[in-house]
Amino acid sequence: MPEMTRDCFTADGFFRTGDLGRMDEDGYIHILGRSKDLIISGGFNVYPREVEDCIDRFEAVLESAVIGMPHPDFGEAVMAVVVARRGADVEVDALKRFLRRSLASYKLPKCIAIAKELPRNALGKVQKDRLREIYLPLWREHLEGRK
After folding, report:
1. Extended strands (E) in the chain
2. Distance between CA 56 and CA 107 in Å, rounded?
3. Residue 25 pLDDT > 70, yes or no?
4. Count of domains forming the chain
5. Are the beta carbons of 103 and 49 closer than 8 angstroms?
6. What percentage of the chain carries pLDDT values higher than 90?
7. Quick check: pTM over 0.90?
8. 137 in a domain, yes or no?
9. What is the pLDDT of residue 42?
10. Using CB atoms within 10 A of its CB, is residue 145 exposed (0-12), middle (13-18) or buried (19+)?
11. What is the extent of the structural domain holding 56?
């Protein structure tokens, strides 16, 4: 697919990985996430990895995945899928209070689902497209409940 291959390179020959990052004042690179995972909510950029890192600091959480879901007012909104540590229960209201201390309001998950595990591909990467499919009915219920 020569056209797709050509689109993967910049005019000066650099390969576009799809990773998003920033360089700090000391020259260190910090990976923020993937461009295809970027959530644009009400015109604001939300990097799922930033929200996931915050969620994963909550004591009862083993791991999380953050996805963008369709929203009638914001275009997209943040939804989180959370896996609890063994023997722990994730109290959603407590998690939301915890997140409010660290995240701007547009980055806060509008809906949090608790899962036993996250779907992964053969390489172990979380399948965010699959999460969107699985949790779309719950998301729709959430939107209906706010009317």
Report:
1. 19-23, 29-34, 39-41, 44-46, 61-71, 75-84, 111-115
2. 15
3. yes
4. 1
5. no
6. 70
7. no
8. yes
9. 92
10. exposed
11. 38-145
